[in-house]
Amino acid sequence: MIQHRPNLDWMLKDLAESVPQTRHVIVLSADGLRMGAHGTDTDTADRLAAACAGLQSLAGAVAVELPHSDGKMRMVVIELDGGFFYLMAAGAGAYLAVLTDEGVDAGLIGARMRDLVARIGQHLTSPPRHDGPAA
């Protein structure tokens, strides 16, 4: 069964335009499929989404080593040469990823990402896919 996903691109555009030096904003499923994007071409968004799936998996593997952790990744921040990468859980099976220039206001981008997730989190949820015909 094909499910209709709402077009999230305009909401991602709002996030990108409200925080100077934001380059790419992507919503992806836990298995690395792009669900929405702003500020990037399709190929780049797809590559970033695929890489994010691996990153959230690694973060979850590390999280289980904490005594009271449920093993779920909430947010990953990576400082890169020339910028920052943010990956935030955005609902069951969905993630919000943002790539910025190095001069970005880290507090502002984090707050705007949390606001976006809180505002539209139910739209960002990606239900698990099942192989084979529907029963």
From TrEMBL:
Residues 9-100 form the Roadblock/LAMTOR2 domain. InterPro entries: Mycobact_SerProt_Inhib_Rv3364c (IPR053141), Roadblock/LAMTOR2_dom (IPR004942). PANTHER family: SERINE PROTEASE INHIBITOR RV3364C (PTHR36222). This is Roadblock/LC7 domain-containing protein. It comes from Streptomyces durbertensis. The lineage of its organism: Bacteria, Bacillati, Actinomycetota, Actinomycetes, Kitasatosporales.
